[in-house]
Amino acid sequence: MTFFRLLAFLALLLGAGAARADALDDTLALFLEDKFPQTEKAVAQLAATAPPQAAAILDALADNRLLIDAANKLVLIKTVSGGLVNAKTGEAITGVDASAFKKVRINNALRSAIAAAIGALTLGNPDPEKRLEAARAVFKSHDPKALPGLEAQLAKETDPRVALALREARAAIIALSADASADDKIAAIAILRDRGDQDAQNLLDVIVQTNEAGPVRAAAESALASIHSRLALWNVAQNLVYGVSAASVLLLAAIGLAITFGVMGVINMAHGEMVMLGAYTTFVVQSALPPADLLWSLAVALPLAFLVSAIVGVAIERLIIRFLYTRPLETLLATWGVSLVLQQGVRSLFGAHNQPVTAPAFMSGDLELGGLAITTNHLWIIALSILVFVGLQLVLRVTPFGLQMRAVTQNRRMAAAMGISTGRIDMFAFALGSGVAGIAGVAISQIDNVSPNLGQGYIIDSFMVVVLGGVGNLWGTLLGALTLGVANKLLEPVIGAVLGKIALLVFIILFIQKRPRGLFALKGRAVEA
Amino acid sequence: MLRVTGAVMGGALAFGAFAAKAEDTVKIGILHSLSGTMAISETTLKDVMLMLIDEQNKKGGVLGKKLEPVVVDPASNWPLFAEKAKELIAQDHVAVVFGCWTSVSRKSVLPVFKELNSILFYPVQYEGEESERNVFYTGAAPNQQAIPAVDYLMGPDGGSVKRWVLEGTDYVYPRTTNKILAAYLKAKGVPDDDVMINYTPFGFSDWQTEVSKIKAFGSAGKKTAVVSTINGDANVPFYKELGNQGIKATDIPVVAFSVGEEELAGLDTKPLVGHLAAWNYFESIDTPENKAFIDEWHKFIKNDKRTTNDPMEAHYIGFNMWVKAVEKAGTFDSDAVIDAMIGIAVPNLTGGLSTMMPNHHITKPVYIGEIQGDGQLNSVWQTSGTVVAQEWSPYLEGSRDLISDWRKPLSCGNFNVKTGKCGG
pLDDT for B98-120, tens place per residue? Predict the structure, then answer.
C-alpha cells in the first residue's frame, strides 16, 4: 500500500514539476510575441509562479538583454559579459552573436511592473543590499500580492536597515489596502509619517484622496501636515545650499575679475574667454589621457588651466592693454574685440560643437544629509572656491607681490613714487586674475556645456558680482557672490528664472545708486577718486 | 561724360545679370546656425542638405541645371537670420532656402521672404498659428506632435498622468505650445492646480532648483509628467540634473518635443532610459527607405556614428517636393513653384506618403518613442496613418475660426470662416 502511495506521490511531484515546466513554457511563449500586453502578462505570471529562472529573466528584460530566437522559438538571455544562454535551461549557446536576435521591447509601464516583480522575488536574497533594494522596490509598487513575502522575511530579518525598509513597505501596502482595519491603517500611517520624505508624502496624499472623512483620513492629514512643515524647512535649507553652490561658481568666475579690475581699473571683457580656455584645457587633458586615468584628469587640468589662461592674459596685457592705459573706454572696446577673436579662434580650432567633458566617478551622484541632497560635483566646486579664496587672500596678505598689488590698487601714483614697478604689477595681476579664471573654467566644465560661447554666460554675472562687492577687498567679492547666488536661487522657485535675473539686476542698479563703489569700497584720503 | 559712364556701367550690369541667369547652376540657400546655442541641433541639417543636393546633382540636377549650395552661419543670432536671408536672396540669388530651427528665427526672416518673394522650407516641429505664402512647413504642427504626446501620457500606456509640468525655453514656440496645451488640458478636465508652467532662458545651465521644483510637484499623490519644450544645449544640463537627482522615467516621465537622436548623441543616456520624445520619424524605424537613407548618410558624412533625426527627414521630404514642383512648373520662378507645390506627394522614410496640403503643411505620421541606453529612440506608440496638420489651433480663442488655403481663389493664410474675411 505504502509503495503505491509513494508511487502516486512521486507521480504527483513529477506531474507538478512537468506542469511547472509547462507553465514556464507558456510564459516564455508570451515573450516570443514581443507585444506590450503579452509581455506584461508574462511578467505577472513570472511573479506569481516564481520559477527559479524568474529573477534572471526579469533582470535581463529590464536591462534590454532578453532576446528572441524566432527561428527556434526560444527565449535567450544575453549575459552581462556578452555571452548567450537559454533562458529556460541556462545552458550556454555558442557560435552565434547576440546582435542577430531581436530584443524584447519594454515601455515605462512595463519597467514599473518588472521592478515590482523583481522586488517581490528577491526579498529573500542572501545579500542584504539586494534585500534592501527589493524592500524599497516593494515600497514603491505597494503591491498587495507581495505582503506575505514581506511578512515572512520580516520574521527572520537580522539587518536593521532592511528590517526598517520592510516595515515601511508593509506600512505602504496596509495603509492603502481596502481590507485592513482602521487601527492597522493608523499604525501604518504613523510609520509613513516617521519616514517623512517625499515618497511618504506622496502615499499620504493618495490616502487622503481615497478615504472618506474619519479617523484614518484625519490621521493621514495630520501626518501630512507634519511632513509638509518638515519638508518646507528642508526645502528652504535645500534652496540655500543651491544658492551657496551657485555662489561658489560665481565667486570662482568673478574673483579674477575683481583683481584685474581692482589693481588696474581695466574692464576686461575677455574675462569670460579666460574661463572658456580653462574649460577647453580640461577637455584637451581628458582627451590626451587614457580613459582609465580620468581620476587624475582634473588634478592635471587645474594647474595647466591656470597656466594657459595666465599666459593668454599676460599676452593681452602686454600687447594691447598696456598701450591703452588711462583710456578705459578704448580698453573696454579692445578687450571686447579680443574676446571675439578668442571665441572664433577656439571655434576654428575645435569646431563650433559642444565638447564632452566627463566627471570622474568620485564626482558623480549625490550626498544625502537628512532631507538635503547635494550633488557631489557641486560640493567639490564649493570646496575648490573656498581653497581659491583662501589661497588668494594668502597671496595678497603674505607675499610681497600681494603687498605691492594692494598698494597699487589703493593709490597707483603714490605706489610708483615708492618705487613699485606698476607696469610689472599690472602684468602679474592680469596673469593672476586670468589664471584664476582658468581654474574657474575647469570647475564650470563639470556643470555646463563646453562650447566657444561658454564665457558669454558668465561675463555679465562676474561684472555684477564685482560691481556689487566692490574692489577694496576680496571679502567684498565673496559677499557679492553669496548675495547674488543665494538671492537668485531663493527667487527662482517663486518668480521663475527669467524674472529672478531681472529682479537681481534691478536690485544692483538701485544698490549702486546708494553705494556707487559697492559693498567694500576702499576708504581713506589716499584713495584715488 | 558722367552720363556715358553711367550708361556703360548700366549696360555692363544688365549684361552681368543676364549672364548670371543664363548660368548652368541654380543656387540653393542653407540657413542654419553653425555656432551658438542652437549649433548642437542645426549643424546636422546643413550637412543633410549638402548630401541631398549632391545626390540630386548625381541624378543630373533639376531641369538640366546643376544645384549649388550656398551655406551661411546666422550663429543662433535671430536678427542675423534676417540679414543672412536677405544676403542669400538678394545677393546670391538663390532659388529656394532651406533653413531655420527656432520659431523666433523663422519669425525674423518672414518679412524678408515676403518682401523679396522667395521660398523657405522650414523643417522643424513648431507651435502653429502661422501659414505664410512663401513658407512650406515640413515640420509638425501641435496636432501632429504635442497633442498626441499628451493623449499618450493621459492614457493607460503612458501611465494615466494626472499632473502636468510644462517646462519650456522662454520664446515664442514654447509659450504658444504651452498656451495650446494648457487649453487642451483644461478642455480634458484637468484642474488648474494640476498644471505647473515654467520658463528658463536659452542656454540655462543651473537646473538644480527647477528640477527640485519638478520633484516636489510630482510628490502630491498623483502621477506626474513633464512636457518639455526646452530647446538647444540647455537640454544637456537639464537631463544631467534629472539623472543627478534620481528622477527616473518610471516616477516622473519627461516627454520632449525638441530632443532627438542628435541632441542625445552628446549625453550619457543610461540614466534617461524610459524618458520620451514625440516626433514623426525615428532613426530606429525599420523600413527599406530608412535603411537606404541611413546608409547613404553614413557614406556621405564618412562617420558611422552620426545619427539621423526627424528634421533631417523633413528636409528630405521638402527637398524632394521642391524638385518635383520645379519639374511640374518647368521653371525655378518662385510664384510658379509655390502654385505647383500644393498636392505634390513624395514618399517619407517610414513607409508612407507625405502630401503638401493647401495650408502649406504636409501630412505626417506620429510616433512616441522611449530613450534607450545607446541614445536611440524606440517607438512605443504610433498613429495608424498620417495626420493632416491643424496649423490654426482649435483650442485657442484667436485661431479657432481660422483656416488656411493657398489655392486660388481663396489664396489666404488666415481666412476667418465666421466673418468670411481674409486676415483673421
Answer: 999 999 999 999 999 999 999 99
CATH dotted code for B144-286+368-382: 3.40.50.2300
Residue-averaged pLDDT of chain A: 86
3-class DSSP assignment, residue B255: strand
pLDDT of residue A529: 46
Q: Is the pLDDT of residue A273 over 70?
A: yes
- What average pLDDT score do residues A235-255 get? 92
- Which residues of B, range 323-382, sit inside 8 Å of A by Cβ? 370, 372-373, 378, 380
pTM of the complete model: 0.84
Which residues in chain B come in under a pLDDT of 50?
16, 19-22
Residue B357: helix, strand or coil by DSSP?
coil
Give the fold, CATH level 3, of B2-140+288-365: Rossmann fold (3.40.50)
- List of chain A residues whose C-beta atoms are within 8 Å of the C-beta of residue B39: 352-354, 451
Q: pLDDT tens across A381-402, in order? A: 999 999 999 999 999 999 999 9
Percent of chain A with pLDDT over 90: 30
Ordered by start, the domain boundaries in chain A are 24-106, 110-211, 236-514
CA dist., res. B290 & res. B294, Å (int): 6
CA distance B26 to A23: 68
DSSP code string of B61-119: -BTTBEEEEEEE--TT-HHHHHHHHHIIIIIS--SEEEE--SHHHHHHHHHHHHHHT--
Give the CA angle between residues A302, A305, A308 to the nearest 5°.
Answer: 150
Nearby residues of A380 by Cβ (< 8 Å), 6 or more positions away:
A363, A443, A446
CATH fold of A110-211, please? Answer: Leucine-rich Repeat Variant (1.25.10)
Give B217 to chain A, closest Cα distance, Å.
10
d(CA B201, CA B198): 10
